[in-house]
Specification:
homodimer, seven-stranded mixed β-sheet, 13 helices, alpha/beta
Chain lengths: ~375, ~375
C-alpha cells in the first residue's frame, strides 16, 4: 500500500503513534488551567511543547497561539484584521489559488462589510506574478487591508514568492496572512525570516492528531477573540487547550526537524520519477514542472484520460492518490487553479495529484511509477475520456 | 490516587483508551473529504459516529455539528443568533452563574453591537428564579434576542430548570442556548425533549479526546459561519473534520449510555458522603445541598478554613480536587456564583469542589471522606484563615 495523499491529510507519524500509545497509558489527564498539580503538570508540558514548536518554526513561544487547525486560524486572522481595519483600507488582495476557506471568508466580508476582493494573477508556472503585484501595491497599497497569498499550493505544490510578498507588505504596513498549511512539515519555513505577519498550521497535515493547529502571529495583540473564553492562550483563543493534540504537534514538528534532510532525498526521487514517466509517456504533463515545488508533490496530467479513472486504477493497485479536480455531480472540471494557470481542459481534467512526505524516497516512487505505467497503458487503450 | 476534578476535565475513559490504542495501530488515516476509498471509509466512520451520538443525545444526526468544543460552540451560536437578530430584539437574557465564555462574548456584543445584557437572579439554592424569569419574559419577551442559561452549574453542580426555560423561550420564539457542557456525560439529557434551541458538548468533559465537541441545533440553518471552509459539516463548520476525536466522542457517549445506571449509585454514595462529613463536622456546609445537583458534584465549605489549603492538604494524600474560587494574586475570593447565591465569605473562601463520574461509588467516597476528615482536623487546629 502506498498512501500518496499527504497534501490531503498525513497519517499519524510513527513517532506520534509511539508517543500516543505511551501517553494514553499514563494518568496525566487534567484541565491545564486547574489549580492542582496534575493540571499544572499538564500546563507545563503544554508550554514545553510551545517552546519546541516555536524553536522549529523560527518564532517566539508567545507568537504561537494554539487552536483547532488552519481553517479556524485563517477565519480568526481574517476576522481580526478586517474587523479592525481602518476605513480607508477596504481592499483584500489575494490570489485565485488560495484554499477554499479564503474566498469563502472574503466573500462574506465583501458582502457584509463592504470590502473589495482583488485577485493577483498567477503565471503559467503557478506562481503569483510578483512584478504585477509590486506595481499594484505601489499604486494602491494604502487602500489594502490584508494580503492573503499562500506559501505553497495544495494542488500544484508550487512555492509562492512569499518572502518577496512579505517585503512589499511590510513596506506599506499591510498585514500579510500567509497560508503555510501545505508548506509546514513538507518544506523549509522560518517564521521570523519569512517576514509574514501571520502564518497557520494544521496538525493533520504534519502527522499530528487532527483537530489541532496553531497561528503564528508577529504581533499576537492584533488578534481579536473569535472563540471566546477566559485567559487560555493569553485571552486570544478561548476553550480548554487540546493538550494531547498540542503534544502530538510538538512530536511531529520535532520529527520533521530531525529528518529535514529527507526533503532532499524526496525531491531527487520525485524528479527522477517525473522524468521516467515523461520518458515513457511523452504526452504526460507535469503541471508547473519548471517551478520550485514542494519536495513530494507531483500534479500529473495525461491528455485525453480522465483523472478519476487513473485514480481508481491506481487504487486497484492499493495506491491512494487524488485528483485535483473539484467534482460536481461527477462532472470532472479543470480546477480553478489550473484554469488560472492557463492549463487546457484536455490536461486539466486528466490530472492526478501524488503527494508524499519526507519519509519517502526512490523505493516508493519506483512502485508508483510501475503502477502508473500500467494504469496509463490500460486506460490509454480504452480512451476513457 | 483519586482524581476528583471531573467537572474541570475528565481523564480519557478506559474504553476510549482501548479504542485509541487499537485505532492508532490501524492504517486508516485520511482526509474524510478525499475522493479515494480511504477518505470515504473515514467519512463513513465519522457519519456512523454522528448517528451514535445523536441517538445517545436524543436528536437527529443532521442536528449534530462537530467542532473543537463548547467554547467554540457557544461563540458560534451566540455569533449566529446575535448577528442575525432582528433590530427590535436587543436583549440578551442570561444568569450570573454562566461559564466565563458567556460574559466574555456577551460583553463584546454589548459594546460592538448595542445589545443589553440582563441577568436573571438565582436563589439561595443556586437555581435560576423561574417565576421572576417568567414575569420578565411576559413583559419583555419580544425584545429578547437570546436566552442563555446553563443546564448544570460547573461549580455547584446545580441543575437549572432548563426545560421550563425552554417552554418560556419557545412560547415567545426566543432562541435558547443551553450550555449543557457539564450535564452531558454526568447527567441525563435528551435534546429533543429538553426543548432547547441549541446545546453544546466538550469531549474532554466526557472522557473523549480534548479539542473535540459538537453543537446540537434544533434548526442548524440558523448557524452562520464562524470557522469558514468548504462543505464540511454541511457548510456550517469549516475545516477538515477531527475524525479521530469524533470517534472517541462516540465511544465515550456510548460508554455513558451503557453505564447510565452508575449515576444512581454515584448519587447515593455522594449523599452518604455529604451526610458523613456533616455528621463529623457540623459546621461544614454543602453548597446548594437542597437543590437537585449533578450526581457526582459536591461543593463543600468549612467556615474559617482556606479552600486552597484544604485542596493542597488533600493533594498531599494523592487526592485531586479544586476550589471554586477565582484566585487573583493568591487572594482567594468568594466566586461570583456563590456571591449571587448569597453565600458569605467565611464559607465562600473555604470551599473545595469534589467532582466524580459514573464509574465511581462508595469506595471512592470512603477514601475521600477519610482524607477530608484528616485534612479538616489538621487545618482546623492551625486556623489557617
Amino acid at each position: 500500500m502506498i498512501y500518496a495523499d499527504y497534501n490531503g491529510s498525513a497519517p499519524l507519524l510513527p513517532s506520534v503513534r509511539e508517543y500516543l500509545k505511551k501517553r494514553i497509558d499514563s494518568d496525566l489527564f487534567a484541565n491545564p488551567n486547574a489549580i492542582h498539580s496534575m493540571g499544572q503538570k499538564v500546563m507545563k508540558g503544554l508550554e514545553r511543547c510551545r517552546e519546541i514548536i516555536s524553536s522549529v518554526m523560527g518564532c517566539y513561544p508567545d507568537q504561537v497561539i494554539f487552536n483547532s487547525g488552519s481553517s479556524e486560524g485563517i477565519s480568526h486572522i481574517v476576522f481580526s484584521v478586517l474587523e479592525n481595519a481602518p476605513a480607508e483600507r477596504r481592499i483584500i488582495l489575494s490570489s485565485p489559488q488560495e484554499h477554499v476557506v479564503m474566498p469563502s471568508v472574503f466573500n462574506s466580508y465583501c458582502e457584509r462589510r463592504g470590502f473589495t476582493l482583488v485577485l493577483a494573477e498567477i503565471d503559467e508556472h503557478g506562481r503569483v506574478k510578483i512584478d504585477q503585484l509590486r506595481e499594484y501595491l505601489e499604486k494602491n497599497g494604502s487602500k489594502v487591508a490584508l494580503i492573503s497569498i499562500m506559501a505553497a499550493n495544495n494542488e500544484t505544490g508550487v512555492i509562492q514568492p512569499f518572502e518577496e510578498i512579505a517585503k512589499l507588505a511590510n513596506a506599506q504596513k499591510i498585514d500579510y496572512l500567509c497560508d503555510t498549511t501545505q508548506l509546514i512539515g513538507k518544506g523549509r519555513f522560518h517564521f521570523e525570516n519569512s517576514g509574514v505577519s501571520f502564518a497557520v498550521c494544521s496538525g493533520h497535515k504534519v502527522g499530528a492528531l487532527p483537530g489541532t493547529g496553531f497561528i503564528m502571529a508577529r504581533d499576537p495583540q492584533k488578534l481579536s477573540s473569535l472563540v471566546y473564553g477566559s485567559s487560555q492562550e493569553k485571552g486570544l483563543r478561548g476553550g480548554t487547550q487540546n493538550y494531547l493534540g498540542i503534544e502530538t504537534l510538538a512530536v511531529a514538528l520535532k520529527d520533521f526537524q530531525d529528518h529535514e534532510a529527507g526533503l532532499d532525498t524526496l525531491k531527487s526521487a520525485r524528479l527522477n520519477f517525473e522524468a521516467q514517466i515523461k520518458n515513457q509517456f511523452p504526452k504526460a504533463v507535469v503541471i508547473a514542472e519548471k517551478a520550485e515545488r514542494l519536495a513530494g508533490t507531483t500534479l500529473l496530467g495525461y491528455p485525453g484520460l480522465h483523472g478519476q479513472a487513473v485514480q481508481i486504477e491506481l487504487e486497484s493497485q492499493d495506491i491512494f492518490v487524488t485528483t485535483s479536480a473539484a467534482c460536481s455531480d461527477n462532472q470532472p472540471e479543470t480546477s480553478q487553479i489550473l484554469r488560472a494557470m492557463g492549463v487546457d481542459d484536455q490536461i486539466g481534467r486528466s490530472v492526478i495529484r501524488i503527494s508524499l512526505s519526507y519519509s519517502h524516497g526512490e523505493k516508493d516512487y519506483a512502485l508508483l511509477a510501475s503502477a502508473l505505467v500500467s494504469a496509463y497503458n490500460k486506460l490509454g487503450k480504452i480512451h476513457s475520456f
